[in-house]
Design brief:
The complex is a heterodimer of chains A (about 40) and B (about 210). Chain A has about 40 residues and is of the alpha+beta class. Helix content of chain A is about 45%, strand content about 25%. The model of chain A has no long low-confidence stretch (mean pLDDT about 85). Classes of the chains: A alpha+beta (about 40), B alpha+beta (about 210).
């Protein structure tokens, strides 16, 4: 619920930004089961 | 269930997290993040992207940052790369599991100083510190994708609007309690607000009303 509110606020408030350099990266974790456990099943 | 990937784009100067996306692989979420970042940029202008060597970003930047250029002739106008767009990639070379060197590739546009996504890596570290669901080798993993996403979104919102960043503080005079610096959040640094938000303000802000105004 709070996260949906945060998403909606960001959608409304964040626009027309003056950007010059943007860094991008990814991270990961697992939900419920790790890859090894999925493969074992 | 299984692996869950998050991808973020962060403005280098202000540390503001511009866009984020979640999915089952990096290849799935990266194009969405690049497109959303352009959507939130003033005038959809070209920006310089800094990233490690994954090919998905080369494809995504080339696909998102292209505009139709009218030629005055009949038919569909050709698509050309948006002016000002750039992509610098720092590729890690490994030998027997150890990193031996880093190659910097200038894929598009001009070269940049410091071609490594260090602030973004620091942000990932911060997320792993604050969120148990991202901490490795613990039992505190998320049980559903909904809770995983919600935790990361709230943490990113707090980073942008509620938590002052030490690197963004501003020297000032006449501050209370004899302070020399005024604390600022990334949202203040990028010009979206003039004060540090509180949780109460966040929870009671009527975004639908703001949209109408």
């Amino acid at each position: 619920m709070a996260a949906q509110h945060a998403e909606a606020l960001t959608e409304v408030l964040v626009h027309d930004l003056h950007l010059s350099q943007v860094e991008v990266d990814a991270f990961w974790s697992f939900v419920k089961k790790s890859v090894q456990m999925l493969e074992r099943k | 269930v299984g692996p869950r990937w998050g991808c973020l784009s962060q403005d280098r100067a202000t540390r503001f997290v511009v866009a984020w996306g979640f999915g089952s692989s990096e290849d799935e979420v990266a194009p969405k993040v690049v497109a959303q970042t352009r959507q939130r940029t003033s005038g959809g202008r070209g920006v310089i992207w800094i990233r490690d060597g994954r090919p998905v970003y080369r494809r995504a930047v080339r696909q998102v940052y292209r505009d139709a250029q009218p030629t005055g002739k009949r038919g569909r106008p050709p698509l050309v790369l948006t002016p000002g767009v750039g992509l610098t990639q720092a590729v890690q070379r490994r030998h027997q599991g150890r990193m031996v060197r880093v190659e910097v590739r200038q894929v598009l546009g001009e070269a940049v100083d410091g071609p490594y996504p260090v602030h973004e890596e620091r942000l990932n570290g911060m997320l792993r510190d604050r969120l148990n669901a991202l901490t490795r080798k613990t039992h505190a993993f998320a049980k559903t994708t909904g809770t995983w996403d919600a935790r990361v979104i709230l943490c990113l919102f707090e980073h942008n609007w509620l938590r002052p960043h030490r690197a963004l503080r501003e020297a000032g005079e006449g501050l209370p309690e004899g302070r020399r610096y005024r604390p600022r959040t990334p949202a203040m640094a990028i010009g979206l607000t003039d004060h540090i938000w509180t949780w109460e303000e966040f929870l009671t802000f009527k975004h639908y009303q703001h949209q109408k105004e």
